[in-house]
Amino acid sequence: MSKPKVLVTGGAGFIGGNFVQYMVDKYPNYDIVNLDLLTYAGDLTKHHQMESKANYRFVQADIAERELISNLFEQEKFSYVVHFAAESHVDRSITDPAVFVRTNVMGTQVLLDAARKFGITKFVHVSTDEVYGELDFDPTSFFTEDTPLQPNSPYSASKAASDLLVRAYYETYGFPMNITRCSNNYGPYHFPEKLIPLTISKLLNDEKVPVYGDGKNIRDWLHVWDHCAAIDLVLHQGVEGEVYNVGGHNERTNLEVVKTIINTLGKSEDLIEFVTDRLGHDKRYAIDPTKLEQLGWQPTYTFETGIAQTIQWYIDNTDWWEQILRNEANK
Question: Would the pTM of this model clear 0.90, i.e. be above it?
């Protein structure tokens, strides 16, 4: 019997990259193929220690290139697809929405066609809680899997469109799929433009930390390793056709997150700099992960333990993020 072969798209990104490492380590009897286009946020240095492992391989490719993707599926005969590949930064989507439609919508559709044609066992589409829109500040309100989709940015609209395509392939063709929708992730190898790594890197260099608006926007924070475990569970035990929300039970305002990092690093709150708010900035996200917990998942990190681990990781790996910042500055 041949070994299961898993295609992970977007495996050079933050969440996908951590998932690739998780799968390679946990399932030595699986072949893990990491497919990524290596755009600005793609980074393979995180996988150097795995390149010699027999169950890992990297393929550079664009998921929207139909012929290339179809040929890859025909050659490789994948058992599973875990689809992370996406343009994901809200600010960039406001500047250039077309790139997000091409990758997130058209790219997903290309993958769906190839996966259906060559008969995979399961397709897990990794999405975001941002497709639900925003919540008010009522602490008793949460996103559930039945919350209507009301995206408020070009990024979240493109993700909602891809979610609906995946759902339509299940309803129309009986396509074997699950959708996961996660809250804000944090942890090792997070690209330095995002709030937590941006704050850590700025503070370590004693630079001002930009905070949108009044800093009162609330996010539910999920450690990326808890997210990886959730996707693994859904891949192997998720009920076909179902959506699963993945949340960390860790709601914090953006300002609280920044102040936590400041206090941990022993820096001054004078380094906080409030800047003009983002267009269409959602007030609050919060997930009810009950359905996933009933499947058998529980987060292992509190925000306190997770943020301490993450800060220490960035202190211990300054070479990684400093090189990325240099590369961005030279573009």
Answer: yes
